[in-house]
C-alpha cells in the first residue's frame, strides 16, 4: 500500500484532470488544486470531492505564477510523498498507483510529455519538441512537472523552495535539485491553439533551456547550424536522415503521428527559431508577461 500522498495541481479552473486525479485518491491522500486568486473560477467552486482542497497562492512576486503555485502547494501539503501534475492532459485510472509503484522500484520518477500541436506552428514544431521535450527529458534524466513523484527527503526542500520563488521553471529547477528516473511512458499534451500562443510557448521553452543549461544551448546551436548547412547542401540525404530520426523517436515513445514527416523543415528552421527564443526580452505565460533576465532574476511586467 502506498503512503499518504499530496498531489499538487496548479490551475485556475476545474478541468477533467481534476476529476481524474480526485477519483484516484486514497483515503489519506490529498489533492491540492492551486490557483492564483480568490476570483479564479476554481476558487469559487462550491462542491469538491473528498480529499480535495483549493489553495489560493496569490500573485507571484519575483517568480512565475506556476513557480509561486508549486511553492505554495509544497508549504501547504501535509504529506512526505508528493506528486506534481498539470491540468492539460488526460491520464488513465491507474495513473497515481502506477507512479507509486514506480517510486517503490526506482525512487523519484517522472513520466515524459509529447506535445501535440493544435495550430499550424505548434504542429510544425512537434518534431523539435519530440527531440528536446520528450527524448531530452528521458535521456538527460530531467523532471517533467506534469507527472513526477518524489519524497521531501529526496532533496533539500528549503533550498529548493527558496530558489523556486526566484525563477520561472518549476521542473527546470527541480531537475537541478532532484535525482529522478524518467520512465518511457508518454503523455500527450495538447499545446497551442493560436499562432500567438505557440510563439509565446516556444520562447518560454527556449529560455528554460537557455537559463538552466547554457552550455547545452551553445552546443545545440552549434550542432543545429551544422545540420542546417548540411540540409541545404545535401537536401535529399538530410531529408531522409531527419525523417528517419524523427520517426525513430516517435516510435520509441509510442507516438503514431504523421508529423514525423516535418523533421526536415524543422531541422532547417531550428537555429533561427532558437535564436528568436533567446533574443526575445519578454514572453507571456498564463496571462502574465515576464522578463527573465537571469535564472534568478524574474519580473512580472504586465
From TrEMBL:
It is found in: Membrane. One of its GO terms (cellular component) is membrane. Its main location: membrane. The chain crosses the membrane at residues 220-253, 259-279. This is Glycosyl transferase family 21. It comes from the Archaea. GO terms for biological process: glucosylceramide biosynthetic process. It comes from Halogeometricum limi. GO terms for molecular function: ceramide glucosyltransferase activity. Gene3D superfamilies: Spore Coat Polysaccharide Biosynthesis Protein SpsA, Chain A (3.90.550.10). Pathway: Sphingolipid metabolism; Lipid metabolism; sphingolipid metabolism. It is a multi-pass membrane protein.
Amino acid at each position: 500500500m502506498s503512503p499518504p500522498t499530496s498531489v499538487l495541481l496548479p490551475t485556475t479552473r476545474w478541468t477533467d484532470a481534476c476529476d481524474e486525479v480526485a477519483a484516484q485518491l486514497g483515503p489519506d491522500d490529498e489533492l491540492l488544486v492551486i490557483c492564483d486568486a480568490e476570483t479564479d473560477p476554481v476558487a469559487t467552486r462550491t462542491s469538491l470531492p473528498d480529499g480535495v482542497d483549493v489553495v489560493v497562492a496569490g500573485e507571484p512576486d519575483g517568480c512565475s505564477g506556476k513557480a509561486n503555485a508549486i511553492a505554495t502547494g509544497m508549504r501547504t501539503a501535509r504529506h512526505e510523498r508528493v506528486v506534481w501534475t498539470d491540468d492539460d492532459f488526460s491520464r488513465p485510472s491507474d495513473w497515481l498507483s502506477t507512479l507509486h509503484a514506480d517510486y517503490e522500484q526506482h525512487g523519484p520518477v517522472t513520466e515524459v510529455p509529447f506535445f501535440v500541436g493544435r495550430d499550424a506552428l505548434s504542429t510544425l514544431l512537434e518534431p523539435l519538441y519530440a527531440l528536446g521535450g520528450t527524448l531530452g527529458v528521458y535521456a538527460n534524466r530531467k523532471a517533467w512537472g506534469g507527472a513526477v513523484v518524489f519524497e521531501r527527503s529526496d532533496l533539500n526542500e528549503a533550498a529548493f523552495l527558496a530558489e523556486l520563488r526566484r525563477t520561472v521553471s518549476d521542473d527546470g529547477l527541480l531537475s537541478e535539485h532532484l535525482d529522478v528516473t524518467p520512465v518511457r511512458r508518454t503523455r500527450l499534451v495538447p499545446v497551442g491553439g493560436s499562432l500567438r500562443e505557440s510563439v509565446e510557448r516556444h520562447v518560454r521553452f527556449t529560455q528554460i533551456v537557455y537559463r538552466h543549461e547554457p552550455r547545452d544551448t551553445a552546443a545545440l546551436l552549434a550542432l543545429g547550424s551544422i545540420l542546417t548547412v548540411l540540409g541545404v547542401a545535401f537536401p535529399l540525404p538530410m531529408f531522409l536522415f531527419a525523417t528517419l530520426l524523427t520517426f525513430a523517436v516517435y516510435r520509441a515513445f509510442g507516438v503514431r503521428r504523421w508529423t514525423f514527416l516535418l523533421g526536415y523543415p524543422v531541422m532547417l528552421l531550428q537555429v533561427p527559431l532558437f535564436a528568436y527564443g533567446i533574443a526575445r526580452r519578454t514572453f507571456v505565460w498564463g496571462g502574465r508577461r515576464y522578463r527573465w533576465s537571469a535564472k534568478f532574476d524574474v519580473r512580472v511586467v504586465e
